[in-house]
Specification:
Length: about 210
C-alpha cells in the first residue's frame, strides 16, 4: 500500500484532511511529547514533513530532527519544505521503518551521539504492515529515559460512531489499519503517560517517558 504515497505525494497535503481533522492530533502529540531546546528527535514515517515546523520549533536551533520515510516521493516533498523554510536542523533519511538499522540513523546526528532524546510518529504506524519491529527500533534508538509519542487513528467512539464510514474511507485511502492502535505500546511500557482523544475518539495522541 506504500505505493499510494509514491503516486499521490504531491496531493497528500491538500487531500489528507489536515486542516479540519488531523492537524490537531499532531499538535497535541508534539505538545504531549514535551521536547526541550537542544533535543534530538526522530519523526518516523515523516511523509511530506507536516510535523517538521512543530518539531523544529520545539527543539530550537541547537536541536536536531531526523525525519525518516521509505517513500522517495514523500521525502521529496519534505525536502522542498525543509529547503523553502531553510531548516538547517533537519536531516531526511530514506529507509523502511520496520527494518532500518538504528545505528545508521544515529550516524546522522551531528553530535556523535548514539541515541536520540525523543521518538515520534504520526498517522504512520497504522500504515506499516506490522508496527512492532518499528517500535523495537524506535526504542533501540531512544536514550534510556527518553520520550516517545505516537499519534494515530481508530474508529470514532461513543455517539461519534456515526462518523465511522468517513473514518473507514480515510483509512482505506491511506492504507491504514484502524485496529492497529500503536499508541497502546506507550501506554503499556511508558511512565508519566499523557494522552488526548480528538475528533470524537478518532485520533489518539499518547506520549510517555520510556525507562
Ligand atoms: C499517512 S502518511 C503520514 C505522514 C506523516 N507522518 C503525517 O503525519 O502526515 C504515512 C507515511 O508512512 C510512510 N510509510 C509507510 N510504510 C512505511 C514503512 N514501512 N517505513 C517507512 N515509512 C513508511 C508512507 O510513505 C507515508 O509517508
Amino acid at each position: 500500500m506504500a505505493n499510494v504515497y509514491e503516486t499521490a505525494a504531491s496531493f497528500y497535503d491538500a487531500l489528507s484532511g489536515e486542516r479540519f481533522v488531523y492537524r490537531a492530533g499532531r499538535e497535541a502529540g508534539v505538545t504531549l511529547l514535551g521536547l526541550r531546546r537542544g533535543d534530538t528527535v526522530l519523526d518516523l514515517g515523516c511523509g511530506t514533513g507536516l510535523n517538521l515546523a512543530l518539531l523544529v520549533d520545539a527543539v530550537g536551533p541547537s536541536g536536531t530532527v531526523i525525519a525518516l520515510d521509505r517513500s522517495p516521493a514523500m521525502l521529496r516533498m519534505a525536502r522542498n519544505r525543509v529547503e523553502s523554510n531553510r531548516w538547517s536542523t533537519v536531516r531526511l533519511f530514506e529507509a523502511d521503518a520496520t527494518t532500518f538499522a538504528p545505528a545508521q540513523v544515529a550516524s546522522e546526528l551531528p553530535t556523535g551521539e548514539r541515541h536520540v532524546d525523543a521518538v515520534f510518529s504520526s498517522y504512520a504506524m497504522s500504515v506499516f504492515h506490522d508496527w512492532h519491529p518499528a517500535w523495537d527500533r524506535m526504542c533501540e534508538l531512544l536514550r534510556p529515559g527518553g520520550r516517545a509519542g505516537i499519534v494515530d487513528m481508530q474508529l470514532p467512539t461513543g455517539i461519534h460512531r456515526v462518523f465511522s464510514p468517513l473514518a473507514r474511507l480515510a483509512a482505506a485511502v491511506g492504507g491504514a489499519d484502524l485496529d492497529a492502535r500503536p499508541w497502546t505500546v506507550i501506554e503499556r511500557e511508558g511512565v508519566d503517560v499523557r494522552s488526548m482523544s480528538l475528533s470524537g475518539g478518532h485520533i489518539r495522541a499518547v506520549a510517555a517517558t520510556i525507562p
